Amino acid sequence: MQNNLRLILSAGGVIAIAILLDLLFIQSSYLSIIAAVLLVTIFAYLIKEHNKVDLIQTTDKTNENKSSTDQDIEKTLTDIASLLHQQLNIIDNEVDRASALIRDAVTGIADSFKYLKNLSEDQQQMLNSVINYQQGVDEDKTMTIESFVHDSSETLEDFVQVIISTSKQSLEAMSFTNEMSKQLEGIFSLLGQVEGLASQTNLLALNAAIEAARAGDAGRGFAVVANEVRALSVNSTELNNDIRQEISKTQSIIERLQSSVETMASADMTSTLEAKNRVSEMVEHVGDVNNKTQKVVEELTLISPKINDTVEVGIRSLQFEDLAHQTLTSLKSNTETINLLYQEIEQFDVKQGNSAEKLSILQQKCQQLIHKADHVNDNRSVSQSSMDEGEVELF
Amino acid sequence: MSVKKQVSENSKKIEIFIDGRFDFSLHQHFRDAYANCTEKGQVFTLNLGATSYMDSSALGMILLLKDHAESHSGSVVITKPSESVNKILEIAQFHRLLTIEQ
Hints:
The complex is a heterodimer. Chain A is mainly alpha-helical. Chain A has helices at about 1-25, 30-135, 145-215, 220-265, 270-315, 320-345, 355-380.
């Protein structure tokens, strides 16, 4: 609006000058010239005055503007303050919650690691006892399957040797009984000779009896003797027959003995052979099983220390609780800084005309806060940042 | 089922063949085959190429032959045992006592 006024005034001045020039060079009327000069002067004054008013009006406008800016600033700052307050509360709560969660979780994890370590130690002990058992440390007290199979194998071999030895002895006994049979045959032929003697004696006695009869009464006594001799020869023949019968019985006994010896000597080795094969397979199998078991057990004993190492690493990793705690604590210091900022902003009270001063104070306070925050940040960068540093014992 | 015997010209080597089953029934023949060979340092070769079966009495007879040979400074060699016969010889651990040639 003021600009329009200035425009109108300027236009009026220009028109006045134009009229003045027109009057000077075209009409040359003194009165008109004076009137025109007067008009120009008035316009010139008006323009000058207007410029003054203009300046004052501009100043007023600035003051009005300033007042509304202060209100804006205050409103904005209040908004910022309330947002800061709200966010601060949330952050504080979340940090506390995270702290509690981590603490609980770490306690739980540490307990499980401790338990795991104990279990692993128990397992190691069991494995050691198994290894000792396998290696026969308690050999005096216990009988392992291996030694049992070994013993069985030896017993079987001894058994085979006994069978063979029995066969050999039986065969020798057989040859003795064969000789005995031959000896008995010899006795038979001797008995034949004895029989011959008896029959000759019998014949002789018969002759003697005949001669005694021829001698008559003188030979009567001799006849008695001849009869007795004959009776003796008959008796000796009977005795011979008895002996022959007895020896025949002995021979049949020897035959039975020989068949017994034959049975004794003739053991079928097939079943022994099969048993031997089975024992051999068993020995091999037990050896295999033992080797495999030994191998697995040894591998298992290697695993146990690894479990322990892993548990140690896990426990060491639990230091993250400390680190996380440190981090959260330093986060707290940040929120404190923000809180201070919030308080400063809350205290910011804009009154007419003192806004610049207040702003400058606020700026100073901000600078202080920035400085403080930098200091805290420097300290933080010094603190531990890696979990591999140091070692933590089980608690 | 029989026992045959071959004696070398200088009578230092006596080879005994066992045909078929080598069991107790052969013991007399088997014994007869070596009993009168009493020269010093004779080698008795027991050819089991045609032997189909052997029981413990056969093993006993072989041991008796070994005793006989050793008592006359001689030795016993077993030749050409079949697989089944060889197994029985192995069970009896004759490989430790005698020379066995395939």
